[in-house]
Design brief:
Layout lengths: L2 E4 L3 E7 L7 E6 L5 E6 L15 E7 L2 H7 L13 H18 L2 H15 L1 H27 L4 H15 L8 H19 L23 H16 L6 H18 L4 H23 L1
Antiparallel strand pairs: 1-2, 2-5, 3-4
Helix pairs in contact: 2-3, 2-6, 3-9, 4-5, 4-6, 4-9, 7-8, 7-9
Length: 284
């Protein structure tokens, strides 16, 4: 085993040199918010007039997975990708391979986003088709809502009749998005946890993909793309829900202003590709 203290991008780990011996690991909370971790080594006797050597290993440095894997079994788990690690690890592998060719983490993020879009293209297309059909029949839906506003049972019946006639699944736009969410969350943790993003420059003013955009350009672009996406979608029939949806791009712009620029770069590219796909499907 091993014992370690973690920071965001760095780890200090004590790794026993002798894998066959049993070590006793301990943690201790001292006064004034000082914490201690360590290992008690097995007892060893060195007789008089003889020599002995006691060897222990310590690693102090960045959480680079390739290095940590070689030092001790499981030490790479100090890079915590959360519950979706089984998706995050392959994503980081692809990101690293792309970096070998581009030598730029920003371009690697863009290429990974494009690859994910291509993989999920059929699912996204199904969702956007459903939303486009909903947008097409929305005037009829509003008319029915006005006609049966006092009778909920007849309203639901009339709406279901339209869905049946037009062969529309009202939840058709949700399912494809739900399937993609775990992958997007996994990529979020990869970009947030990977020390490779620390002080990694992309282009122009973006000189550290692990830090927020200093001029808030990417968050603003992200907010604009999110607003355009909303305009391509059918507006909610509930006026309160419609107002909430209008506020979302502004709220997300504020949130993303404090997120790492590498993560915002991913969302911007993803939104632009989604807009292009959605616009093409809505038009056709």
């Amino acid at each position: 085993g091993w014992v370690a203290m973690l920071q965001h991008y760095f780890v200090t780990a004590l790794v026993p040199a002798d894998k066959k011996q049993i070590y006793q690991y301990y943690t201790n909370a001292l006064a004034n918010d000082i914490y201690l971790v360590g290992a008690i080594t097995p007892a060893r006797t060195i007789t008089a007039a003889s020599k002995g050597q006691i060897e222990e290993h310590i690693y102090i440095g960045p959480k680079i997975i390739k290095k940590l894997e070689k030092i001790a079994e499981g030490l790479e788990l100090t890079v915590d990708y959360g519950v979706l690690w089984f998706i995050a690890k392959p994503l980081f592998g692809v990101l690293s391979k792309l970096h070998d060719y581009t030598n730029n983490w920003g371009w690697s993020i863009i290429l990974v986003t494009i690859l994910l879009k291509l993989i999920f293209f059929p699912l996204s297309a199904a969702g956007y088709k459903s939303m486009a059909n909903m947008r097409r029949v929305q005037p009829r839906m509003l008319s029915i809502k006005e006609r049966y506003k006092e009778d909920k049972a007849k309203l639901n019946q009339a709406m279901m009749q339209i869905y049946k006639e037009e062969k529309i699944n009202p939840l058709g736009g949700c399912f494809p998005i739900l399937v993609q969410i775990p992958v997007f969350i996994a990529l979020y943790w990869v970009l947030l946890e990977s020390v490779e993003m620390r002080q990694a420059s992309f282009a122009l003013w973006l000189q550290d993909l692990s830090s927020p955009d200093p001029y808030f350009v990417l968050p603003l672009v992200m907010g604009i793309t999110m607003f355009i996406q909303q305009k391509l979608n059918p507006a909610p029939m509930d006026p309160v829900q419609a107002k909430v949806m209008q506020v979302l791009p502004v709220a997300f712009t504020v949130f993303f202003a404090f997120f790492p620029s590498g993560l915002v770069l991913y969302w911007v590219v993803n939104n632009i590709l989604s807009i292009a796909q959605q616009w093409q499907i809505t038009r056709s």
